[in-house]
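Hello,

Our lab assistant flagged a job as stuck in the queue for most of the afternoon. It eventually completed. Since we weren't sure the result was trustworthy after the delay, we are filing this so someone can double-check. Below is the sequence as submitted and the structure that was eventually returned. Let us know if re-running is recommended.
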Amino acid sequence: MSSLSVLVVVHNEEKQLKDCLRTISFADEIVVILDKCNDKSKEIASKFTKNIYSGKWDIEGERRNFGLKKCSKEWIFEIDADERVPILLRKEIIKTIKINKKDWFHIKLNNFVGKKIVSHGWGAYIGKSAYAGLFRNGKKEWGSQRVHPKIILKGEKGIALKNHLDHYYCQNIEDLFFKLNTYSSLRALDLKDNNVNETLPKNISRLFSRFWKSYFLRKGYKEKNYGVIIAVIAALYPLVSYLKFKNYKA
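-- returned structure --
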């Protein structure tokens, strides 16, 4: 019978973690990675699992790869503390790993801003509409970037799961801009470390291409004001990251 590890990577998530862990109790193994935690995350996690590992990582991909290596079961399901597994998705995951011969699957998300589901406009720079979250052990590896690490997937891709994961991404609009500031700072450090050849004109042009992609191609316009804000943040992310990068070099 197929077995499942659920991996949760955490940084000071005492407000979210308990609700997340409650929804993954169906797993054969829960692995929690505590990254620079100084709140009650460890105390909360210990009520659900003994597989708790603490450490300090500056690179997102490195801490996630560390967590993957701690998972011992045939299948791995990755989830963040601000995400919840509804009953229908839980049943679909259990069924999928029992009968499917493919190696990895995309999971779609219901992205919440506060209590509202915002379905359109999300992408690589701001939020995510789906991710490769269910896979056989050894079939996924994270890159070495601080933010939005590249992902290497091995084997055959299965059909995306039908049921959605609930993702409580932001409490309000202010949180969206907070994430822009945080992620752009990390991206700037990645640019600095990798000596990426970026130019101001290139990033100014991205203002328009990224807005177009988010608002029109990803149908952000259907979300009205939220769609405009998401598209603006998506557009600003490369430019703000670049300007911070140039400031680090100065």
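-- support follow-up --
The delay was a queue issue, not a problem with the job. The result is valid. The CA atoms of residues 59 and 145 lie 6 Å apart. The radius of gyration is 18 Å.
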